[in-house]
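To: structure subgroup
Subject: Chain for Friday's discussion

All,

I'm putting the inputs and outputs inline so they're searchable in the archive.
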Amino acid sequence: MFSEINPRVSENKNVISFRQTQDGKHRMASSMNVAFIGLGTMGAPMVLNLLKAGHAVTVFNRTVAKTQAAVAAGATAAESPAVAANAAGIIITCVSDSPDVKAVVLSEDGIINGARPGSLLIDMSTISPGVTRSLAEQLAEKDIAMIDAPVSGGSEGAQKGTLSIMIGGAEADVERARPVLGAMGSTITHVGPIGAGQTTKAINQIIVAGTYWSVAEGMALGLKAGLDMEKVVQAVGNGAAGSWGLTNRSSNMIKNEYPLGFRVNLHQKDLAIALETARELGLPLPMAAYVEQIENGLIAKGYGDEDISAIARSIREMSGLEQ
């Protein structure tokens, strides 16, 4: 049997509930107060999964209309990141780029000016490892802990709660975050100190770039040869060439239709971070640099909001499939 001790700290909503087991050990209860900032393609379904898991969630988004589904599902809307942060012991950010994270954390109405001492910030954006480390240092001065926890799995993974989450930070902070992260991801890996999660995400995006580009080339070859591409994908997908990208995005490339999963412009931003990190380490990344240029061209042509499988547009054009 469990008996509750100090079940709620209701006056400040910085809820960290504990239960005392028969062996006398205190364990964190499953329900926690969470602030979530950034309800875009990824963040919105992540919030819904937190609510389904029984967490109390306060949300903030610059475009207020994007909070409506979360509020209808039981979330509370806040007027600023600071107000949202003040209502929770765990604060999650999931926004587009390094400047956006810096704004929601460091601005006058940002997290750093609203979060209570002892709070934990989980940044699930994809940003520069260097910016991550700088933010962690500034937050630590206010006794606010931080871990970086970027994700992979696309909008499908965000909706299903099956994201792969790669984490940098102190072990104790990571363990504190697990009950919340478990509502959003099925693979949660602590890869190293603060910033290591972002470096791991850069590696992920490099591999994604190579996989998608090779799938695009393969699909173009099959189309030019007049093959039954459904049978081709079945044949190669069950062998050494099998991959998530082949299984889930080859049909986009065959049909030349690219419904949104993860935007070209966001992947290009991620590759730029990877290339910047590589330059700092003196490492050439020729394939990543090539795909980044492909994506720059797509963005210039107005395809930046399509799924990243739209890189197939480039090889289709070069091969004459678009004529």
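Points worth raising on Friday:
The first strand starts at residue 3 and ends at 5.
The chain has two domains: 3-193, 199-319.

D.
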